[in-house]
Amino acid sequence: MIVVRNCITHVYYGDGRCDTYDGHDPTKWEEFRARYFEELDTNPTGVSELLSHVGDGPVTFLFSSKEMLRNNAHALQEYVSKVLD
Fold first, then answer.
1. Is residue 5 packed enough to be buried (19+ CB in 10 Å), middle (13-18) or exposed (0-12)?
2. What's the average pLDDT block by block, 10 residues per block, for the chain (85 residues)?
3. What's the pTM?
């Protein structure tokens, strides 16, 4: 199980290029996700480490955004779910 919670914590951004998208504009969400997934794809070691924790039991992804649905934690949850399927 992967739980997403709002918290003032920086969790995982790789090199930080995709740590935010312009004011959380919903029209830019797809572009943000695509860029974030590309960044994750370029870091197989980090993704592998993350996935090893997912196998240990419940994982909580934290985020510090006012945007409850379009944020890095939800994007990361989606990415991990796709990789595990």
1. exposed
2. 46 49 75 88 87 82 82 90 90
3. 0.74
